[in-house]
Design brief:
Helix 1 packs across helix 7 and helix 4 (about 55-70) packs across helix 7. This protein has helices at about 1-25, 30-40, 45-50, 55-70, 75-80, 80-95, 95-105, 115-135, 145-165, 170-185. Helices cover about 80% and strands about 0% of the residues. It is elongated and about 55 Å long. By secondary structure, the protein is mainly α. The chain has two domains: about 1-50, Arc Repressor Mutant, subunit A (Orthogonal Bundle); about 60-185, Tetracycline Repressor, domain 2.
Length: about 190
């Protein structure tokens, strides 16, 4: 019985995350009732899991950030070089356009929210570590500050998201365009 209940709660949480991500990306003022309806769950279920909009927004933001972690977890084991890791990173992240859109529209994280800030800073540090590795193997110019290259990567993610919304370009092509731009901007 407990396993069935746990599976039902997990299914409800997944539906709420998806509905929250979709609706709040389109309308920042979407109500919890609207989100419950879109998720196909009762308001009581949603309120039991997330009793305020702020808690739901934070949960969706964490869900999105964790989706990036899951999508890129394989980079080290599947890449033969730092540059290939960047290409694989773009390919892994670009299908997460709904998650990217939610985070872009969310804006800056609440600086008082240590949990969101910690996840984001960890991800930035991982990119910085990859940049440093690429510099050490001679793939990237050592003249460019690491923070510059990290911001360039984030800028390419943003540019790809804007392009996807303006034009019908598939994720694979966007990843290739971002990688091409990255290599021609910072590669030796």
């Amino acid at each position: 019985m407990t396993e069935h209940l746990d599976a039902r709660i997990q299914k409800s949480q997944t539906a709420i995350m998806q509905a929250g991500m979709d609706l709040l990306s389109k309308n920042r003022e979407a109500s919890l009732s609207d989100i419950a309806r879109a998720a196909g769950v009762g308001r009581t279920t949603l309120y039991r899991l997330y009793d305020t909009r702020e808690k739901l927004i934070k949960a969706v933001a964490i869900h999105c950030l964790e989706a990036f972690d899951k999508a890129t977890a394989h980079l080290e084991s599947q890449s033969e070089s730092a540059l290939q890791a960047f290409h694989l990173m773009f390919k892994a992240i670009f299908p997460l356009s709904a998650e990217m859109e939610f985070l872009m529209k969310l804006g800056d994280f609440d600086e008082d929210d240590s949990e969101l800030t910690a996840i984001y800073e960890k991800q930035e540090k991982e990119i910085a570590t990859l940049v440093e590795y690429a510099k050490s193997e001679g793939s990237l110019s050592k003249k460019l500050p690491t923070s510059w290259v990290v911001n360039l990567v984030e800028g390419l993610l943003y540019t790809s998201w804007l392009t996807k919304n303006a034009e019908s370009i598939d994720h694979e092509t966007l990843a290739d365009l971002a990688f091409h731009t990255f290599c021609n901007g910072v590669a030796r």
